[in-house]
Automatic annotation (TrEMBL):
InterPro entries: PPIase_dom_sf (IPR046357), PPIase_FKBP_dom (IPR001179). GO terms for molecular function: peptidyl-prolyl cis-trans isomerase activity. This is Peptidyl-prolyl cis-trans isomerase. Its EC number is 5.2.1.8. It comes from Candidatus Fonsibacter lacus. It is an enzyme of class 5 (isomerase).
Amino acid sequence: MGKKYLWVITKVTIPANLDTKYIKISGDTSTGAVLGKPKGQAPTSLVSVDIVKGGGATVATGASVTVHYTLMAWSTGNIVESSWTSGQPVSFPLSGVIKGWQEGIPGMREGGRRLLIVPPALGYGATASGPIAANETLIFVVDLIKVG
């Protein structure tokens, strides 16, 4: 009785699992995301949510990035493509990708994982692209490896 304790937290672990109102995401950032099926109606504006906040360099507008990503089509709940399948991350300037990435990736930090839900107007719009249907809402889970 009468004892006092002082707790000091030296390391905080942010869980790599997230259950948003739209989709459940799990999986370690070293292996790739595991996505549940989308829930409810697709959002009509860009959704950008950090699942894991990185601690490295921050992405500026128009920067070049190296990422791993997984892409799911909202309408089917199917994985359309994933860089994790090949095991090779991809690099590109944000100026060369869809508007959803140009608006949703800046501010992300190296080592982070971010959920992007991209409405058709910020994705491929009325144009189908390979396995992606016209007017498709796109779900990306992006693991930022490097800025620049």
